[in-house]
Amino acid sequence: MSITVYVPSDSCAVSMGADQVAAAISKQAQNRGLEVNIVRNGSRGMYWLEPMVEVATAAGRVAYGPVQKSDVEGLFEADFLNGGAHELNLGLTEELDYFKRQQRLTFARVGITDPISLDDYIKHDGYRGLKNALAMNSADIVKHVTDSGLRGRGGAAFPTGIKWNTVLNTPAEQKYIICNADEGDSGTFSDRMIMEGDPFVLVEGMTIAGLGVGATQGYIYLRVEYPHAEETLNAAIAAAYEAGYLGDNILGSGHSFHLEVRIGAGAYVCGEETSLMESLEGKRGLVRFKPPLPAISGLFGKPTVVNNVISLASVPIILDKGGDYYRDFGMGRSRGTLPIQLSGNIKHPGLVESAFGLTLRELLYDFGGGSASGRPIRAVQVGGPLGSYMPESQFDTPLDYEAFSAIWAVLGHGGIVVFDDTVNMAEMARYSMEFCAVESCGKCTPCRIGSTRGTEVMDAIINGDNLSKNIPLLRDLCDTLLNGSLCALGGMTPYPVLSALNHFPEDFGGHDQANAA
Amino acid sequence: MTDLNGKQEAVRNAIASLKDKPGALLPILHSVQDALGYIPAESIPEIAKALNLSRAEVHGVISFYHYFRETPPGKHTVHVCRAESCQAMGSKRLESHVKSKLGIDYHETTADGKFSLEPVYCLGLCARSPSMQIDDAVYGRVTDDRFDEIVNELETSL
Question: Which of residues 373-412 of A touch B (CB under 8 A)?
Fold first, then answer.
């Protein structure tokens, strides 16, 4: 009987040699006359163990990792196909502490199923949410999402149910669902993992959204930096069309929903929803003034739901198990679970999905195991390149949108980038300004000019030039960016810059000058 | 078939198969760049005409997006991630090594046409920083030595 072996096709696992490992396993099995069925799954998210090979045994899936192709022969010698002892044997995957301590709702299937097998998806509770939704009217679908307390996982944390309700109640002959898959924040990769590891959950979530608001066309706006995700999504969409889960008359219900992947072209600002729509319309990705809200006048001037990948991928379980089930996870007004991404200088980088409320310290030390370099952790940036740098004194902050905003930080997309004590925070502040200058769409002056001036002022500060004048000037510029920019790119660049200055003044030429203003 | 004809054919195919999509310009530009490696200046009037746009508008879109290019790339394109997670793991050092090994700066192509170098702001491989991409292949935990190894291998295969 053939034995099933799982080797992730997740691009981060591939970046560590997963393809070569899969090929070596296949070759060894052939040489030994053994029947092995290799499934290319998503990643379980324990990236320091990737490529992590799993073998299906009677006791459950046994993990080996990190496996290099040179290890494969030894694994066969050690009878790994029957869970044999080997120095890379990690035991049962689901008993690994890092994995066991999580609460996986959105990521329930990632790393477990074959991402492009519709059968596998359905066997693991897929499309149950859509089937429930098909038996409801639009208002009830939206009510479940409202009751779940789901807020946009892209960063702004706007309640998803309210957005959907606005689109539902805006009459139009055509409405759209857009999935914002332009995950461009450094330190975030949960969208990529879903799209590569369980694309059907996104397809299902978008289909439910279409039914909920009366939209028949959806677009996934995917960043060009994610070619692996493009391939997986297109394979899943084709399979869903083939089986009648997409297209006209879905499962004989009389409802229609069409879905297409559109590729961006390397502009960070197109992660902003109005720039994204301009780009989808075939134009430069310039930010639009709001109002009108996209929910009222969005893509091609029609009512449009724009949601992040994780928001939409959280919808199937809400419709499967009910809004109340999802709402019962979390704390305060942050309901459900958040996929958290640990990266940068950390020993155990990876994805942790858990209910809101874990503290940074738990994530950095209990899950992350401290820094990769073994040196003290000095700063963490949470929420992407526009998120604040947080010092050790803030590591007990719970992951909760309100708790973060109370200390002028952002939770954003749940990405956590760790820096040890070799980091220079003035250099990081300069980088934030430079990044804003490179990526500004140019429509508003505070962002376009402010970021270039900001880079120059940071250069002067790093040189130690006239600090008593330049540090107040930097604060003044940040104030203009913060209050005068059209969108979050200019409006939030001051978060990393000012948090670096406020929490790490010693890197800006000394305490006195930095605190003078 | 001359080179010029090949280019024209790629542009015409892209226009013919995609022009009726809503918001067709980006898909057309992608299709041209996928086929040719860049978007030749002489294709702009044809694309503009097919979409009822001005040439300036099409040029404006090409120049807005970092990914689109109007000059041919080298045989291989190296994308080095410059984002924060990679910086926390030493990407600045790697960047200078890559530049000195290839002898070029960002947005340049080596004189022998073998390599182009581009920065990228996040490949989503943050859990294995520093990372890079060469053509379609992704690499995590890149050290100076590993970069040299990969590049030397590509050089000998050219």
Answer: 381, 385
The dihedral built from the CA positions of residue A375, A381, A382 and A385, taken in this order, carries a sign that is: negative
> Which pairs count as long-range contacts for A243-247, CB under 8 Å and 24+ apart, including other chains?
A243/A118, A245/A118, A245/A127, A245/A130, A245/A203, A245/A204, A245/A207, A246/A203, A246/A207
DSSP letter assigned to residue A384: S
- Residue A144 CA to residue A147 CA, distance in Å, equals 5
Structure tokens at B144: 């100076």
pLDDT of residue A517: 45
Closest residue on chain B to A192 (Cα) = B124
Contact assignment for A381 to B131 by CB distance below 8 Å: no
DSSP-derived secondary structure letter, B130: S
B29 touches A at CB < 8 Å? yes
Question: Which member of A263, A344, A435 has the closest CB to residue B129?
Answer: A344
Whole-angstrom Cα distance, residue A493 to residue A500? Answer: 11
A212 CB near a chain B CB, below 8 Å?
no
Residue A6 CB coordination number (10 Å): 25
ipTM attached to this prediction: 0.97
Give chain B positions within 8 Å (CB) of A47.
127-128
CB neighbours of A2 closer than 8 A, spacing ≥ 6? A35, A36, A37
Mean pLDDT across chain A, nearest whole number? 96
C-alpha span between A491 and A156 (Å, rounded): 13
| pLDDT, tens digit, 9 for 90 and up, residues A267-321 | 999 999 999 999 999 999 999 999 999 999 999 999 999 999 999 999 999 999 9
Q: Do B88 and A417 touch (CB under 8 A)?
A: yes
H or E segment to which residue A411 belongs? none
Please tell me the predicted confidence (pLDDT) of residue A513. 47
Task: Give the torsion through C-alpha atoms of A399, A403, A405, A410, to 10 deg.
Answer: -10
Please give the pLDDT value at position A175: 98
Distance CA A174, CA A193 (A): 31
